[in-house]
UniProtKB/TrEMBL annotation, chain A:
Major site of localization recorded for this protein: membrane
Listed name of the protein: ABC transporter permease
Pfam families: BPD_transp_2
Keyword Transport: no
From TrEMBL, chain C:
Topology relative to the membrane: Multi-pass membrane protein
Tree of life domain: Bacteria
Transmembrane residue ranges: 21-43, 63-81, 93-109, 115-138, 150-169, 198-216, 245-263, 324-344
Protein's name according to its UniProt entry: Sugar ABC transporter permease
Keywords, comma-separated and alphabetical: Cell membrane, Membrane, Transmembrane, Transmembrane helix
Main location: membrane
Subcellular location: Cell membrane
One Gene Ontology term, aspect cellular component: plasma membrane
PANTHER family reported in the protein's UniProt record: ABC TRANSPORTER, PERMEASE PROTEIN, GUANOSINE ABC TRANSPORTER PERMEASE PROTEIN NUPP
């Protein structure tokens, strides 16, 4: 395999990894505050369709991305209202959000099926982008690819070094303690949930504007759930989320290439199972393995909290 | 109504002043100055209960003031209002003579109020440094500088701490130091301590008192919440006594006897448990632990290490120890909630049962009362009938085929309610709506009425009012008199000394030799609780 | 006057049974505005969506056809959710059940006999249960989260079905369409209402609900399930075996979903095709919650959800509204239900502000 075939392959790996990374890093922040939002898939779908509709309507992809971010935030606020204010079960509410998101996105998207949209433009950086091989690999991407990495860096710094990040982790570690020394647990969690919604919305926008620039019903195809698995796989650490997203991106692309390479007699559908099976295997390995990743889970993950007043 | 209130207040003010005046240090100008803290008319209600009703008292600068009351008297609710966690329904708080509103703990800290919680406000997976920073409103950006300050302050008050350690690796006493140091770094003018000694060994209590006296000498006031009378006599300059959410008296603890304060606190003649005499040459060995070892269940727990213990019929064996030394896993291992590695590690009446589950062990005659009532010993959302079913369905035969015989469990629940004086509207009331004391009476009663051969009880009277506690303790004594073997795991040393025939101590997952309760000294038990013989995890020096 | 939210000391049973009605009412109101936004006459649209399907024999019979799988699956899910076992992969278990039941039908394609249908039902249940055994095994053995595994397996199951109907099970005379042969008459469910598609599966679903109710409220296993969900530590204290209960709930749901899948292909569809279910496995989650995780409540909520499918179809045909409206309605309904659940544990009280000071 020479560089001419390897390069496009690596580029597609990055493309496949980006939506996973965006969604997972948002969910990581949400979970670090102690909230489990299983609605990532739904928020991504709505983000995808809103980004598409706004881009088609206004001709501006940037507006589309911003709209998708707000759509994600809006849905996450519904989740927050139910779980944080009204104390609903987080698992059930997350499922409801996904079901709702699937419905809303296909309702909005029904008139956009088959509509074309221009693929999100590559940010051309004069000089750097023109370097052979490395240029396209490192500097030949659209804005969301850079954004996904930048957000990861920011989140890593935020959680490790900022005071706000310390408070966020504290809230996820012990809501009672955080409350009794004066932190507004519910407010912190709302903000974390909203950040998760924002990232999921943008992840959806990437799917419908760049990965496959069109709208297809249910186009996330389980990526929201894979992102959830990634967070556990990464033991709630941002850099590992980045690594995990790229590994999963690699698995996705590998099966496409194997299919392209003549299929080796294996039906395409069997190859398509790979990312899902890989998710199950990875989850099993981290749950059963000697690392016992779940020990790193925020201690209050998924538990409701309501302060006495 | 208003007149009554004012008269009442005048009365207690008089008593507080009298108490303070007599108890203060000689160079005391405080009485003429404004009190550092003055509460008046504080009322706070929750659904179904009035936690504080028209509470008022004063704390002078440099005074150690006790807030005394039994469980459920409203002490914790009151101090949460002082620290801004809860908002009073009515009443006023005066700080240095000025009326203040304390809407949040941040506001409390800004005034100079520090708080050490009974259930620590710590984050186990984080470092000491992070925990301290979280408890401060302005820790500064420089973490190295903060670490240095933590070292300095903690050492100057005799509370050494390593800022880099993660909290879950520390002992309970060391964890309390974090809370104290966190307050000290903010130069508090009033330190509120909620039941600080309940998790300490007697020796650690002594050290804590030294620190508090040093603070007092620097002019810091201390509000000391406790129900332990001897400590208050030893440490405090004045005391306010709460009962049922109301101030019932103010006194100078040095002038009172422990008994007189107890009567004020409980409001009735002190009832003591009637021990049977004789029969101390206990019966045959009913249960044995042989080299029982087990990994901790919780991520940050201590493992059980080769525990040997034998329990005889007719005796009450107490296991003392500071919380978090393996008590939970020990109970789980005996009950069968966690299985031992080998069947022979737990032996009942000569039968190895280490690999059996709780249902099988219960059938053989072992009943247990776990420490946590809501959610472990009982299902809060289920009725008392269902909760009777929970642990008694096999032993008492509440099943027909694979189906429930609810009528039988209902009448059993009714009997428990009657015999143990459980205050509840009826058998179909949800367990979670009972008060702590009543639910505990129900659970203990449920186990005792199953006529266990062996009964293992954790914290039988934790958070229970005095009347219920007396009922429960008497029931345990009476059960032992019938020849059953009883193991009591408790953090309350006084309770163990009252109840037990023999006492052993658990520390860092190891259980000491059991000693006769009549002859053992508190100091000896205290040393064992502190783990004098070679704990593997000694705190950072 | 101010409003104050208070925790109830005991959950309100009255509210528990009121909330589904509150949620349905709120959904209808929200639907009114939704239809308005979509440019339809909201009164007409609501009528077309909720009432018109009930006016014809066809509509009523189809209600039963669609409610049957929903009820069957939701019974199993409800038992699991009561025990805090979150199987959300019933759609995959349904698919595997359809594959296994369908495979039996195709294997006996040229045979006739009364034994074929029971055999298909058994195969379908076994297939669904076997598929649910994967998350059960991973959960009990390695503590792998069943939410993610059961869902991932749903995607795999759909692809697996596609492999089969594009490959080995494709109708040799089917002009290369991705579908199997039509099943023989012996492999097709008996119709219980003349001239409609309403099949015996509806009766089976009702029986399953009654059996589920007896199991949950009267049997010791039901008691164990309720305890495990409400207070896991208390369940362990009582000696209830969590592993066994996890297996029980997942296998039961898998078997019921598998049976539902078999009934779909042996009933309304009559052959294996790439898309067997319009998301019954997911909608059953809503059915279970809306029925208050109570088997008898699930009969009612199953019928209501079936109605929402019919309403979506009608709205598409008569008002040319997108059929996706159904999904939005279902999602909203679950949201409103979860929101109104707050009233079960809390109450809102009017309080007079207390006079300040002494």
């Amino acid at each position: 395999m020479n560089i001419d075939t390897l390069l496009p392959m690596l580029l597609t790996v990055i493309a496949a990894a980006t939506p996973l990374l965006l969604a997972a890093i948002g969910e990581l922040v949400t979970e670090k505050s102690g909230v489990l939002n299983l609605g990532v898939e739904g928020m991504m779908l709505v983000g995808a369709v809103i980004a598409f509709a706004v881009t088609v309507g206004t001709g501006s992809a940037i507006l589309g991305i911003i709209a998708a971010a707000f759509a994600g935030i809006a849905l996450s606020l519904v989740f927050g209202l139910l779980t944080l204010t009204l104390m609903a079960n987080q698992v059930a509410t997350g499922l409801a959000l996904t079901i709702f998101g699937i419905g809303v996105s296909s309702l909005i998207g029904s008139s956009y099926i088959g509509t074309p949209v221009e693929k999100l433009a590559v940010l051309h950086i004069p000089g750097l982008s023109d370097i052979p091989v490395l240029g396209p690999l490192l500097f030949g991407h659209d804005i969301l690819v850079y954004a996904s990495v930048a957000i990861t860096v920011l989140v890593a710094w935020f959680l490790k070094s900022s005071r706000a990040g310390l408070i966020l982790r504290a809230v996820g570690e012990s809501d009672l303690s955080a409350h009794s020394i004066g932190y507004d647990v519910i407010k912190v969690r709302y903000l974390a949930v909203m950040f998760g919604g924002l990232c999921s919305g943008i992840a959806g926008a990437y799917l419908s504007l760049s990965y496959t620039p069109m709208w297809v019903e249910g186009m996330t195809a389980g990526r929201g759930w894979i992102a959830l698995a990634l967070v556990a796989f990464a033991s709630w650490r941002p850099w590992r989320v980045l690594g995990g997203a790229y590994i999963f991106g690699g698995v996705t692309i590998l099966q496409l290439y194997l299919q392209g390479a003549g299929g080796i007699g294996i039906p395409a559908q069997v190859m398509n199972m790979l990312p899902y099976l890989a998710t199950i295997i990875v989850l099993t390995v981290i749950s059963a393995g000697p690392w016992r990743g779940r020990l790193d889970a925020p201690a209050c993950l998924g538990k409701p909290f309501r302060p006495a007043s | 109504m208003v007149v009554m209130t004012q008269r009442h207040m005048l009365h207690w003010r008089y008593r507080v002043l009298r108490g303070l005046g007599l108890g203060m240090e000689p160079s005391d100008k405080a009485v003429k100055e404004h009190p550092r803290l003055e509460l008046s008319g504080i009322t706070k209600a929750f659904p179904g209960v009035i936690a504080n009703s028209d509470v008022g008292f004063k704390v002078a600068p440099g005074e150690i003031h006790a807030l005394l009351g039994e469980n459920g008297a409203g002490k914790s609710t009151l101090v949460k209002q002082i620290y801004g966690i809860l908002k009073p329904d009515s009443g006023s708080i005066l700080w240095d003579g000025r009326e203040v509103d304390i809407p949040s703990p941040h506001a409390a800290r800004a005034l100079g109020i520090g708080m050490v919680f009974q259930h620590f406000s710590l984050f186990e997976a984080m470092t000491v440094l992070e925990n301290v920073a979280l408890g401060m409103d302005d820790p500064g950006k420089d973490r190295v500088a903060l670490a240095k300050r933590i070292r300095q302050v903690s050492e100057s008050y005799g509370l050494p701490l390593d800022p880099a350690r993660e909290v879950h690796t520390l002992s309970v006493g060391e964890r309390q130091r974090i809370e104290i140091v966190r307050c000290l770094l903010q130069s508090p003018r009033l330190l509120v301590m909620d039941e600080p000694t309940s998790v300490l060994t007697p020796q650690e209590v002594g050290k804590l008192f030294e620190t508090l006296r040093k603070l007092k000498s620097e002019g810091c006031s201390i509000l000391y919440i406790s129900h332990k009378l001897n400590e208050i006599k030893e440490l405090c300059d004045g005391a306010t006594i709460l009962r049922g959410g109301k101030v019932v008296a103010a006194c100078n603890p040095r002038e009172e006897t422990a008994r007189s304060m107890a009567q004020l606190m409980i409001g009735a003649e002190f009832r003591s448990v009637a021990r049977r005499e004789g029969g101390k040459d206990a019966g045959p060995v009913r249960m044995e632990l042989k080299a029982l070892s087990m990994a901790p269940e919780m991520a940050h727990g201590v493992p059980l290490k080769s525990i040997n213990l034998s329990l005889r019929g007719g005796e009450i064996l107490g296991i003392a120890g500071v919380a978090g030394n393996g008590q939970g896993d020990l109970l789980a291992a005996i009950a069968g909630e966690r299985k031992a590695a080998t069947a022979g590690a737990v032996v009942m009446d000569g039968k190895p049962v280490g690999r059996l589950g709780p249902a099988a062990r219960r059938k053989l005659g072992l009943c247990t009362v776990p420490e946590e009532r809501n959610g472990h010993g009982a299902v809060p959302d289920m009725s008392l009938t269902d909760n009777a079913m929970l642990s008694a369905h096999k032993r008492m035969g509440f099943m027909k085929g694979g189906f429930l015989d609810t009528a039988k469990s209902r009448s059993f629940a009714a009997e428990v309610i009657k015999r143990f004086d459980v205050r509840t509207p009826g058998t179909e009331t949800a367990a979670g709506s009972l008060s702590g004391g009543n639910l505990q009476k129900f659970i203990v009663g449920r186990e005792i009425l199953q006529k266990p051969e062996i009964l293992v009880v954790a914290q039988p009277t934790w958070g229970v009012d005095a009347a219920a506690a007396a009922t429960i303790q008497q029931a345990l004594v009476d059960l032992a008199a019938t020849g059953s073997a009883i193991l009591v795991i408790s953090q309350d040393l006084d309770e163990l000394l009252t109840l037990s025939d023999r006492i052993a101590v658990i520390n860092a997952g190891q259980v000491s030799e059991a000693m006769p309760a009549a002859t053992v000294s508190v100091e000896e038990i205290g040393l064992l609780m502190g783990g004098i013989h070679g704990t593997p995890e000694k705190g950072a020096a | 006057m101010a409003l104050k939210i208070e925790a109830r000391r005991q959950i309100s049973t009255r509210m528990l049974y009121m909330t589904p009605f509150i949620a349905v009412a709120a959904t209808v109101v929200a639907g009114f505005f939704l239809f308005m936004m979509l440019g339809a006459d909201p009164f007409e649209a609501l009528y077309v969506f909720f009432i018109s399907p009930l006016e014809t024999k066809y509509g009523l019979s189809e209600l039963g056809v669609k409610a049957a799988p929903l009820i069957m699956i939701a019974i199993g899910l409800a038992l699991g959710y009561r025990a805090n076992i979150w199987n959300i992969g019933a759609e995959g278990q349904l698919t595997l059940g359809a594959v296994c039941g369908g495979a039996v039908a195709l294997a006996f394609w040229e045979e006739q006999g009364l034994y074929i249908l029971p055999l298909m039902a058994l195969a379908g249940m076994a297939g669904g249960a076997a598929y649910a055994a994967i998350p059960a095994f991973l959960k009990t053995k390695f503590n792998v989260n069943e939410i993610l595994t059961s869902l991932m397996l749903t995607y795999v199951a759909t692809l697996f079905l596609a492999v089969l109907v594009f490959g080995p099970l494709k109708d040799p005379m089917g002009f290369n369409f991705p579908q199997s042969r039509m099943f023989s008459d012996s492999a097709t469910l008996p119709i219980i209402w003349e001239e409609t598609r309403l099949h015996i599966g509806f009766v089976v679903a009702l029986l399953a609900a009654v059996a589920g109710w007896v199991l949950l409220t009267r049997s010791i296993i039901g008691f164990q399930i309720r305890t495990l969900g409400s207070a896991p530590a208390a369940a362990r204290y009582a000696g209830f075996d969590r592993t066994r209960l996890t297996w029980f709930c997942l296998m039961l749901t898998g078997a019921l979903a598998g049976l539902a899948g078999t009934f779909e292909v042996a009933g309304p569809i009559g052959q294996l095709v790439p898309n067997i279910s319009p998301g019954y496995g997911f909608t059953a989650i809503i059915v279970a919650f809306l029925g208050r995780l109570h088997p008898l409540g699930i009969i009612a909520s199953g019928l209501l959800m079936a109605l929402s499918y019919m309403g979506g179809e009608n709205a598409q045909i008569n008002l040319s509204l997108p059929q996706a409206v159904t999904g939005v309605f279902q999602g909203m309904l679950l949201f409103f239900l979860l929101a109104s659940d707050f009233l079960v544990r809390y109450r809102v009280r009017r309080v007079k502000p207390l006079a300040e000071g002494v």
